[in-house]
Give the backbone structure.
Amino acid sequence: MVPEKKQIPIGTGLFVWPSDEARLIATRCKSCGDTFFPRTFMCRNPECKEKAIEEVTLSRKGKLLSYTILHFPPPPPFIVSGAYEPRAVAEVEMPEGLRLIAPMTQFDFKDIKIGMTMEIVLDSLYRDKEGNEIIGWKFRPL
Amino acid sequence: MRPVAIIGVGLHPWGKFPQKPWTQMAVEAAKMAFQDGGVEWKDMQALFFGSQMWGGRPGIFGGNSFTEVMGETGLPVVNVNNACATGGSVIREAFISVAAGAYDMVLACAADKSPEGFFPSLPVYYEEPTPSVDTIRWKMGLPNPVFWALELRKRMIRYGVTDVHLAKVKVAMSKWGALNPFARYKKVFTLEEVLNSPMVADPLRLYEICATSDGAGAAVICSLEKARQYTTKPILIAGAGLGTGLYGDPTTRLPSIAVTPKPNVPLISESFMAAKAAYEQAGIGPEDIDFLELPDNSSWHFLQYIETLGFAKEGESHRLLDENATEPGGRFPVCPSGGFSSFGEATVAQGFMQVAEIVWQLRGEAGPRQIKGVRVGMAEVYGAAGNNAALILKK
């Protein structure tokens, strides 16, 4: 019997799963207002005394600040299936005052423009040795 | 704190040496340093050693592996790991122990065999409730040059840095490296060759990112009083700074997948802090430094460090390349060793390559690379996870 191929998130506590929408789980400090991703058990601001934290989910849209195109395959544990295609990685400014770094998806290289609006989506990063899809978040230009 | 000097330096050439144990490379570097200083292994009262991650347990406890082959004398061994800033950090720990009067003479040493290609992830033997940022970035497929390229593109847009500037870094470095017998790459590159090399992490090309190498280095460090018994050319450690990041640093630090930037926090703040500490300890500023060994992991690092260390205003470092100031014969020599560009990264050992070069330059022993009239040199090493070490040496 062939085992069923599964979708596996790259880690627990990073985004709401299962879900069709990309809702990244972050920590907001109610005292100083700063937001951290991935979630943390303590506010990281050294000036903050209260450190009263809450769990929040991040907004899903931001602005493209920078990007790179990786022309060589990344090392393990990332697995390249078939011929390697160049992958774009984006740095995106989020409304919460954070900048996120993640791969890009569903775009044409010629359409990338600094300042464009990007949406966070859940997508397959790679397939593991058993053929399961490893799921993470990516940026899709709007 | 009493004055402290370096009386002996040694290097194993950088390259790939699959047939040679890394401990043997370390021993050869140490023997060269002993000979240079006119001392012996049994004169060493303590050993400060670069702990390296790639060789498993023997590499992590590298100082112990080293003493096993050198001959065990029971001396205290401190294994230091501050990522790629380890070399400078090892030397700083050795310096502090002698400056404090705990020892009169110690050995600082490191050796490394860095994996080829993109650095890989390291094994983790337990699962955390939320995986570490480092685990996440590997699963996302983000090797180190991705982070440098993201930062570099912002610089290019803001300040008008071009592809030609990035390539000129390699050209300038290769002119120095061609003159250094310890360098791995001795070919002088043309602008066209660099611009025609394959794109790796756009806008960084293959020859604009340092290779990875095997290498080893050592330095004999002692009190200035003791040094005078051995040499007429002691090289003083005038400042030794160690830095970590500031909260709110806007840099896409390696490894990070999210940054919470704050106003007025400098880029690569760990490096800014290390340099600030070294300048304060030495009681001098960038205007007093004659030449610089910086961590040129990529062309982005070259441009950023010149500014972070105070040798150019923000957004102006590329102008030094326009006037060929950093290459042999230029008005501000940068990496007369040839830099990581000519050596390749041997992660924990590279700080020693920089210090050996500065010592030779200050003694007037740098051969065809010799810069005339130099009195003060600075070495900076950058490490992942917000590590940096800065050393200021003078004669």
Remarks:
- The radius of gyration of chain B is 20 Å.
- Chain B has a mean pLDDT of 97.
